[in-house]
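The aim of this short unit is practical: by the end, you should be able to scan a pair of folded records and say something sensible about each. We start with the first protein, listed as its amino acid sequence and then its structure tokens.
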Amino acid sequence: MKKYKVEHQITINGLRKVFRGNSEREVRRKILEYEDTVRNSSTIDSIIEEWQKEHFPKLSPNTLHGYIAGSNKILDEFPGTFISDIEPSDIQRFVESLAMQGYAKKTVRNTLLVFNLVFKYAIVKGYTDKNCCQYISVPSSLPQTKRESLTPEEIQIIKDNKDKYFFPYFLLLTGLRLGEALALEKSDIDFESRRIIINKSLCWAAKEPQIKSPKTEAGKRSVILLEPLVAPLKSFKSGILFPNKDGGYITRPQYCRKWSKMCNDLNTNVTAHQFRHTYASMLYDANIDVKDAQLLLGHAQISTTLDIYTHLKAERINADLDKLNSYVSK
């Protein structure tokens, strides 16, 4: 075994590693190279997953629910992104985009809080040396509440324009996450059993598409293929269902341009997330059991589905109370 003149031992991210060389300079260079590799290979996805495993068991159910919601919004915006590539301007644009989508001040503040906690964790673990959330603030003009589901008018607009804009209609009748829908191929559609097989998801790393497996086993599932979707999907060519113009997976800029054009053409302002929430509302209104709804939506925890159902029940009760008050006031 070769003998070295210099040896240093360091601990990074809880792992002890020994570096050896013939000089202090050589060992220091090896340490710096290793630290850069660790830092540059650390994506938001992996850091959030690690942070969740360490901290989530200590949280109360209410706090846990808020942190999961905030984490998911961050993962939707920065999938596969190296934390070292995120700048304060990126987070500022992220916060502004949440505001433009109509999220309430509390929701935006909570998401920024989660992002801040993730950055602090990453600093402690050596993944980055800066907290890009430090000077970002939530716009004071944000509303206090947010409409999650599509309105009946918006749903009708989507239905009336399904021939021209099939993708939002597909989201409406499947409740898929955006990445799940964009990763689908025609071979994932089982027309005989009327099922859509979900076994992968698209994410964007540096705006470019990447395909990954679902984060949890619950994400691997089959979704009911509703009858209105059968004939249109059968007419699709083999390959990616919703590709770019070259037939490949769509990039983030391409998707944003297409979605923005659709919203402008239809004179509406909706997000992909709203279609998923609307689908959950449809399941509730159709009296689909909460356990079955959990499987269809791909929620890892039934508490997530229960929260949605509880919220929807409260909405329906409030609407019924308004109707009753209106009736008795005549």
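Turning to the second protein, read its sequence before its tokens, just as you did above.
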Amino acid sequence: VHGILTRSLGISIAMQTEIESTRQNFVLIANPISGKGKATAIAENAYQQLTANGRKGRLELTTQSGDANRFAREAVENGLHRIIVCGGDGTIHEVVNAIAQKPDVVLGLLPCGKGNDLAGALKIPKNPADAIDVLLNGTPRQIDLGKIGEHYFDTIVTCGYDAEVSRRVTEGGVPFSGTAAYVYAAITMLFRYKSPVVRLEGDFGAYEGNILLTATGITSSYGGGMKILPDAVMDDGLLDVCIIKPIPRLTVLRMLVKLFWGGHTSHPAVEIHRTKSLTIHTQPPILLCADGERICYTPATIEIIERGLSVLLPADKG
């Protein structure tokens, strides 16, 4: 009997070992059109290096909007705890909305998009080889998220002029990529934009009147590095809010340059606030974009979700 039990136990241990050895622990989701079509090659290289270093997982390529969200949800349902995204802020946005407020699920990034603002805020290297090193040796950390209704976001919500610029870039027709795409869209949109009347309510009180824009977020930058919220901290439990009142077109152009180092904040038409939530009312309703994606129309309430996302950072940035 003892021999039978021993052999049975040995078989059970062997079977368990085999199951563990084949169990996947990551999914790599790539948007093939990101990075002017370079995302597939970058993702395949990353996948090969991850598996060569003992990780087990699969590579999924998106073909349409919503695929990244679906792949991420399926991965979580199957018990995977590492979700890697090769793409831009739009693809990341989809994945974040599948893994938000799941602290045991960690997001890894291979930046390969027009803006890469979340990756920039997290100090993820743009060089693919260095970014892959972060996937292999990085340190998990929890950061804040924002939320509008049922939608989560990880960078900045735009309302007004910058929302229209984001819409123009996202919908295409801009003959540039990266930061140049946002600058081009900002200049061309300037001649057709009309400032809306808004009412903004937050911990700072209320503002009512016309605006050029209102940007509310977790990170400091949008548009590939324009520091609209230069002092934003990703884990302080607060939303940073920038309100810019209507200004002449030439002043807008000058301010666009200053955005790259946050120099706009000293202008008398600019207000910076911090708040746990922000309610926006307008008449008529206007578009809100988050992470560069169309989300909803006003009225809307934006709120902070403290430490709502686990991300993988370079080891020396944890």
